[in-house]
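Journal club prep — side note

Before the paper discussion, L.F. wants everyone to see what a predicted structure for a comparable chain looks like in token form. Sequence:
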Amino acid sequence: MSASPLRPTKTAMLVAQRIVADINERGNVIGDRLPPERVMLEKYEVGRGTLRESLRFLELQGVITLKPGPGGGPVVVQPDATALATSLTLLLQFATAPFRTIAEARLGLEPMMTQLAAERMDEQTLMTLKESVDSMRGNLDNQAVFLEENKRFHDAIAHGSGNAMFGYLVDALLGMLDGSAIGIDYPEVRRAAVHKAHLRIYQTIESRDPAAAAEAMHEHILEYVRYAEKKFPDVLNAPIVWGLT
């Protein structure tokens, strides 16, 4: 009995899955070129339009980049949280969820991540955490540096938790809740308070105290939520919209 023909979109998705499986099987690393189009057309037994749709999908997901010109073609890259942030933003927009949703998610997730980081973080990541704390302290008069270090600090804890999912989730959530982009201002006195909280969190992780680390992070995120509720309630209550973050 012959199989029913697949819809083109479904076929393209299945081909994309096979391409990723082959990347893993071959052991391709970042920068490796995938086989030429003619080879993939023969291997996957699809038309040029379907193959190109599969490759465009993988490019949107950050799995490959399509280099134009002679010697170009699909090249393996390192996926990041951009596609995840976009998908989450669209889901939350259509659920008419406010920005408060993201703040509440961080309040629930980040203490757990910090607890794991106190148990698992390696010395190199711990050094990155200290560098971020020191850089923030030395640049409290510069909001741009403050925001950069704030993200670096939370990213380091998420990835230092030893749980890859937490790392990508925090990358996505921080990208969606960039206070400067959605209208939350950080005067220098507020930056100093954040630095103090970061220093305490770092110290609890350095001393390998999981309970104290989780508590310190919970207090830090809760303080942020309270600050935003007091100073920028309209921002927290505003609906999440793709393209404004």
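L.F.'s comment for the group: The longest helix spans residues 210-231. Keep this in mind when we get to the figures.
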